[in-house]
Specification:
Elements lengths: L2 E5 L5 E7 L2 E8 L5 H16 L8 E5 L5 H18 L3 E4 L1 H6 L8 E9 L2 E10 L2 E11 L1 H11 L3 E4 L1 H5 L1 H4 L5 E3 L9 H13 L18 H10 L2
Helix pairs in contact: 1-2
Length: 232
């Protein structure tokens, strides 16, 4: 079983191909808003590197957010188009799960935080479980101070990971029980997407393209700006 993973929820986007042998090829770009321009060439590149044809893909996995609206739309639309064309199922994985997964080898509570712009963060909490991670509670959107308050209330040793945590690092300075993970783990990873999707594929936790929807925790920025402009 070969899985194509597409991740575009943040300023750093990527794709990967893998299966039971692990990740065979991957590519990533930090070019911000050029996801639509870079994604298809990147998929073609990793197919070449893995020496496979797109027709060999069994499942298309995609990051469903929360994240930046334009990036999510590009990634999910591309993933759905490929799934329809290849007549294969899909697997959607939340972006915060992808952030927490690489730092799962810890007994500490994991807090994953993505920069949501407009002075806010998308965040969620996780614990290590056999074979991976488990999210505790819902995905949330709030200010850095909101997250800091929750970290203080937990009274646990915590790993804080994500570009949102780094952007507002000064908010979390001085918290003795909180360790900020380095920049190398700041963005969701297409490699993690393939790994998590493979585990779900083995359990046959598939979805049809029409059933894969983005996780939006607030209105798009364009809609917010339009409402604000219309106020007297």
């Amino acid at each position: 079983m070969l899985i194509l993973g597409i991740e575009t929820a943040t300023a750093s986007a990527g794709c990967a191909i893998g299966g039971h042998e692990g990740v065979l090829a991957h590519a990533s770009s930090g070019r911000g808003r050029r996801h639509a321009e870079n994604l298809v060439p990147a998929i073609q590149f990793i197919c070449t590197q893995a020496q496979i044809e797109l027709s060999e893909i069994s499942v298309v996995a995609v990051d469903v957010g929360p994240g930046l609206f334009t990036g999510l739309r590009v990634g999910i639309a591309t993933a759905k188009s490929l799934a329809y064309a290849l007549k294969v199922p899909m697997i959607g994985v939340p972006s915060l799960d992808l952030l927490a997964f690489p730092v799962r080898f810890t007994n500490r509570l994991i807090a994953a935080a993505i920069d949501a712009r407009r002075g806010e963060l998308y965040y969620a909490f996780y614990r290590q479980v056999p074979g991976g991670i488990q999210r505790i509670g819902d995905h949330q959107v709030g200010t850095p101070d909101d997250l800091a308050s929750e970290l203080l209330l937990s009274r646990e040793e915590i790993l804080l990971v994500g570009d949102g945590a780094h952007r507002y690092a000064e908010t979390f300075e001085g918290m003795s029980r909180v360790e900020l993970v380095d920049h190398g783990f700041s963005h969701p990873s297409a490699n993690s997407l393939v790994q998590l999707a493979h585990a779900r594929a083995l359990r046959e936790q598939f979805a049809q393209p029409d059933d894969v929807d983005p996780i939006y925790l607030r209105k798009p920025d364009a809609e917010i700006n339009w409402v604000t402009r219309d106020r007297p």
